[in-house]
Amino acid sequence: MTAPKLADPREVWNTRFERIRERAAHSGSRGQGNYERWLERWLPLIGSITGSAPILDLGCGSGGDSTYLTGQGFRTISVDISREALILTACAGCLPPHARLLEVDVRGGLPFRAGSLPVIVANLSLHYHRWERTCAIFQDIRRCLQPGGLLLARLNSTADLLHGARGNPPLEHNCYEVGGILKRFYDRRDLDALFHAGLEWRVHNIEARTAHCYENPKALWEVVVESASTY
């Protein structure tokens, strides 16, 4: 069977965020949607590690997490594959003039020195890749974290039946074609494989939760893990 031709993710997200930006400009809103303060309960932990160093918002989208963290007094680096997303983030109006915004495709690796970041946040941005590349991306995230640095992520769950985990053409295990793009959903076994205990990660929290940031409730995993050693 011939593999389906999937859309280029940069083009897809540029188109989507351009539309969001246009609607936001028309309505006078910031275009950040129904933002959930999911990081709030982790602020003491983030603050104990970050110091004055910036937090990386990986796959920042419309900038909700970057805006929230900046409002809590943290410095941020906002990264996305979509230039339109970065424009939307900048237009949110709450980032300081020195805030960094970088257009980055994680498939080519992150442009940061090994051990240079205390905290990386990835909010529903790490589910667009086949398993082999997914593992490589998480290894690159660990490379960038300082020893004891944190990854805080929200990841698609296989229980997320209202957002693509059911009724779509399968591409590989827990991975489907949804609206012309690849979309991955994680089960607990996947997470145990990515964040296995030992020399690489220490797990603070892996928890099934439900988010209400979209029209329909979204089942997801909330993950907080610590880089356990140098890369």
Helix content: 25-40%
Q: Output the CATH homologous superfamily.
A: Vaccinia Virus protein VP39
- Count up the domains: 1
Rounded mean pLDDT score:
90
CATH topology, anyone?
A: Rossmann fold
Distance between the termini: 39 Å
Low-confidence stretches are none
**How many β strands by DSSP?**
10
Most strands sheet = 7 strands, mixed
Shape: globular
Q: H/E element string?
A: HHEHEHEEHEEEEHEE
Radius of gyration: 17 Å
| Helix/strand structural class | alpha/beta
Number of helices: 6
CATH architectural group = 3-Layer(aba) Sandwich
CATH class: Alpha Beta
Give a verbal description of the structure.
The chain has 231 residues and is an alpha/beta fold. The protein has one domain (9-26, 38-196, 207-227): 3-Layer(aba) Sandwich (Rossmann fold). 28% of the residues lie in helices and 28% in strands. It has six helices and ten strands, in the order H-H-E-H-E-H-E-E-H-E-E-E-E-H-E-E. It has helices at 9-27, 43-50, 64-71, 83-91, 131-144, 188-194; strands at residues 55-58, 76-80, 100-103, 117-123, 145-156, 170-172, 175-178, 181-184, 201-211, 218-227. The strands form two sheets. A seven-stranded mixed beta sheet has the order 3-2-1-4-5-10-9. A three-stranded antiparallel beta sheet has the order 6-7-8, with no helix packed on it. Strand 4 (117-123), helix 5 and strand 5 form a beta-alpha-beta unit.
